């Protein structure tokens, strides 16, 4: 039977439950177990698709087109699994399911209530999703990590807390464990335990007893033994059940920090993991994973040479808006053995209007761009800051600075080329200028503009490399020289097919297209150290031990030509896609299985925010 580990939080939100949950899952994988994960978000939204990045961090997109909480990105990266939209539970999803059942008469005329109907729906959902295979084995997972968002005591999380109280009896004591993450603040050198005592008291009052208390410390000072003993005494747990999680040099060290406190040994006893049938093959895989992870973290500590990347974006006020981009850059920096430095530039700061309103901010922004080892322009929605992106792209192209454009960055690279090289000053995107005379980026051509919402191109899609450019295309070589690659998409606008021939004849080469050859998906410049744009979001499929190919090429090129050549040769030898074999199929099959459908009766994927 599947074992369940609930990770809850107290005192404050945003203290690292996701990293602790992912790290625990990784350690269980090193023990040879198959692990899946579920994130519960108590907000009323159906999914994260309509949220501003500055509201809740980035919207993470899955293979099946699900727009979910960024913590699912942590799970996929740490556990090297492929999750679905059902792995993200929200209050909106649960209430919709319960109301749909009520409308269909499935409750047989009963009064529909929070208990038992909503709480049963939550438990049923968790049990159903926990059985779904998420790795290359194709087998049911041994362990399901369930992270409950927010903090204990929040009004919106109350039904989920009650559902998990009931769930511990549904699955049995040996199949359910609870890790409670709490803040231990340091006040004038003294580690204070009262907030943890209070939140554990509240949790116990709701019928849940923590098996492990993870004490989060905001600083490099580890949890003191006296603090540990005090929490043990007042929270009714043994001392070995209290673990400290202080700040470390990198989040990739957190699994090793937990391992050093014997968390897996405790879970082995608590969940009777010896009763699970773990094959020698999976034990061997687990040991190999642990060795590789230790190699990455140890190597990271000995990095001295720096690679400096300037990220020119729209949402730089909240770094979590670009969580997957940051992780993809980190993974690639690990591979090339460089210390990564990211300089953040708000794209609107590069525009002439800022020069007039705030000259110091304008000059600081341009000073960063001019000194960049590589320039990255990530995705986004809305017109604000796009002129600054175009200026940064122009600088990278003309000054031979390595450049990577993702989604909106890819589109703005096309607009910049049309303006600067083709001499069309009013070239634009119809996303920003609907009646543009020279529209080089247009609304997705295969879907009617009359359909409201639900027209996003979402989820995994194939790209076919053009054979005419295989001798020099860096993108194709970084993807192992394969004829096809698969990446996740989230966009509505694309390069206007009417202008493709003109663009290519002038030197802007589209080396990758969709299966019909209608959608431009990868661009490159042949006579540039590294100038690449992708319509897809390759950062979403990057892994610590298997970096995203475009990001790897970009970081390597930012280090120097010899580093890029070395990584290209390594990719040609050893690249393997991060996707399950069964998911790498044709466009039509993927479209049917994802959410790329116009809405009906007002229900569907809505327009993303444009700020």
Can you describe this structure?
Helix content is 38%, strand content 19%. By secondary structure, the protein is an alpha/beta fold. Strand 21 and strand 22 (520-524) form a beta hairpin. It is built from 21 helices and 23 strands. It starts with a strand and ends in an 18-residue tail after the last helix.
**Distance separating the two termini:** 46 Å
Largest sheet: 9 strands, mixed
Q: What ranges have pLDDT less than 50 throughout 5 or more consecutive residues? A: 448-453, 596-606
Strand order of the largest sheet: 13-12-14-15-23-22-21-18-19
Give the class from helix and strand content and strand pairing.
alpha/beta
SS elements, strand count = 23
How many helices? The count is 21
How much helix, percentage-wise, in residues? 25-40%
What is the strand content?
15-25%
Radius of gyration: 25 Å
């Amino acid at each position: 039977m599947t074992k369940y580990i609930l990770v809850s939080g107290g005192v404050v939100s945003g203290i690292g439950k996701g990293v602790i949950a992912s790290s625990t899952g990784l350690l269980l994988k090193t023990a040879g177990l198959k692990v899946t994960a579920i994130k519960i978000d108590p907000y009323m939204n159906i999914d994260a698709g309509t949220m501003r990045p500055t509201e809740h961090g980035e919207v993470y997109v899955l293979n099946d087109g699900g727009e979910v909480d960024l913590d699912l990105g942590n799970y996929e990266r740490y556990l090297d699994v492929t999750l679905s939209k059902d792995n993200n539970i929200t209050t909106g999803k649960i209430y919709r399911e319960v109301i749909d059942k009520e409308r269909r008469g499935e409750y047989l005329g009963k009064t529909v209530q929070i208990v038992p109907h909503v709480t049963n729906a939550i438990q049923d959902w968790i049990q159903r999703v926990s059985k779904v295979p998420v790795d290359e084995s194709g087998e049911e997972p041994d362990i399901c990590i369930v992270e409950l968002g927010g903090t204990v005591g929040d009004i919106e999380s109350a039904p989920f807390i009650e559902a998990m109280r009931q769930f511990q009896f549904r699955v049995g004591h040996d199949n359910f464990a609870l890790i409670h993450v709490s803040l231990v603040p340091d006040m004038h050198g003294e580690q204070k335990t009262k907030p943890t005592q209070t939140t554990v008291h509240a949790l116990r009052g709701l019928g849940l007893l923590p098996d492990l208390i993870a004490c989060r410390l905001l600083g490099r000072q580890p949890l003191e033994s006296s603090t540990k003993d005090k929490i043990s005494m007042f929270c009714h747990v043994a001392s070995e059940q209290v673990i400290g999680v202080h700040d470390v040099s990198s989040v990739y060290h957190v699994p090793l920090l937990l391992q050093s406190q014997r968390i897996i040994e405790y879970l082995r006893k608590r969940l009777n993991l010896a009763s699970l049938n773990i094959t020698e093959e999976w034990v061997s895989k687990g040991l190999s994973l642990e060795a590789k992870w230790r190699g990455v973290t140890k190597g990271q500590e000995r990095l001295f040479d720096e690679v400096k990347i300037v990220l020119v974006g729209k949402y730089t006020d909240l770094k979590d808006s670009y969580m997957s981009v940051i992780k993809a850059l980190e993974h690639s920096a690990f591979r090339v053995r460089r210390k990564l430095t990211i300089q953040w530039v708000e794209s609107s700061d590069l525009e002439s209007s800022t020069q007039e309103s705030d000259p110091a901010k304008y000059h600081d922004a341009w000073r960063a761009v001019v000194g960049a080892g590589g320039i990255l322009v990530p995705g986004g929605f809305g017109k604000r800051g796009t002129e600054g992106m175009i200026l940064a792209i122009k600088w990278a192209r003309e000054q031979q600075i390595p450049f990577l454009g993702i989604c909106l960055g890819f589109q703005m690279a096309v607009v910049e080329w049309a303006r600067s090289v083709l001499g069309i000053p009013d070239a634009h995107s119809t996303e920003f200028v609907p009646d543009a005379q020279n529209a080089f980026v247009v609304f997705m051509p295969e879907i009617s503009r009359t359909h409201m919402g639900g027209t996003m191109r979402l989820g995994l899609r194939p790209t076919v490399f053009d054979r005419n450019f295989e001798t020099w295309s860096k993108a194709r070589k970084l993807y192992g020289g394969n004829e096809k690659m698969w990446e996740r998409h989230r966009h509505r606008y694309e390069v206007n097919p009417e202008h493709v021939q003109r663009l290519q004849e002038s030197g802007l080469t589209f080396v990758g297209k969709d299966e019909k050859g209608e959608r431009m998906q990868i661009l490159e410049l042949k006579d540039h150290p590294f100038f690449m744009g992708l319509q897809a979001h390759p950062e979403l499929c990057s892994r610590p031990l298997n970096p995203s190919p475009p990001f790897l090429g970009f970081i390597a090129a930012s280090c120097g030509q010899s580093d890029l050549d070395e990584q290209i040769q390594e990719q040609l030898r050893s690249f393997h896609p991060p996707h399950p074999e069964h998911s790498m199929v044709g466009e039509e099959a993927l479209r049917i299985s994802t959410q790329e459908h116009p809405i009906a009766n007002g229900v569907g994927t809505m327009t993303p925010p444009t700020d």
